[in-house]
Every structure is written in C-alpha cells, then in structure tokens.
Write a structure and sequence with these properties.
Blueprint lengths: L1 E3 L5 E4 L4 H11 L13 E3 L2 E2 L11 H14 L3 E2 L11 E3 L2 H14 L1
Parallel strand pairs: 3-6
Antiparallel strand pairs: 1-2, 4-5
Length: 109
C-alpha cells in the first residue's frame, strides 16, 4: 500500500501485516454507543494486485497507470488470507453485505 505526500509523491510502501489488521479488529469491537469516534460500519475490502516494480512507481499517477494496465492483463483477486475475526462494525470483502447493513442501520435511526 503506497503512502503519498500532498504532491502525490509516494513516500513509502507498506505491506499489509497482522499488526495492521489487528488495529481494525480492535476498532471493530469498540462500543459505538460509548466511543463516538468508532464508525458504525466499515467496509474492509482487501484486493490482491499483481506484483509491481516499486522502484519505477514513484507517484500516484504512475501507480494508477501501472495498475490500470496490469488489471486489463491479469484479473485482481480478493484476498483470502485474512480470517473474519472482526466484530460487528467491520464487514470484510463483502460490498453487498456492507450496503445491506448500512441500509438497516439508516432505517433504524
């Protein structure tokens, strides 16, 4: 995952790790009635892209161009290496379920 500065320059690359996912697991178990900073629902959609040459991709524009060309040649995949250990505020890799839960939440307000 690239991190950008305000000019669209990639400042660092970060791999998805257990430590990063653990932050979302903790957030997903927060009590949304007690902690107002916690989102009611969050969609965590993890996609496995084809490998890239990190030295050549230095800007947001180059990153976008690279993957638009790559995706046409090789399909992206939803990551399956992360287990669904999340609480009820996180929906993992299921956009339709996320929308359904948001609709139910809005109707309950």
């Amino acid at each position: 995952m690239p991190y950008y500065n305000n000019n669209g320059i990639i400042t660092k690359w970060e791999k998805l790790t257990t430590h990063n996912i653990d932050k979302y697991i903790v957030l997903s178990r927060d009590n949304t009635d007690r902690y107002f900073h916690t989102p009611v629902k969050t969609l965590l959609f993890i996609i496995k892209f084809p490998n890239c040459d990190y030295d050549m991709i230095t800007t947001k524009t180059k990153y976008k161009r690279y993957y638009l060309n790559q995706i046409s040649d090789s399909p992206i995949q939803i990551s399956t290496i992360i287990n669904n250990e999340f609480g009820n505020t996180i929906v993992l890799n299921d956009y339709e379920m996320f929308i359904e839960k948001i609709v139910h939440y809005i109707k309950s307000i």
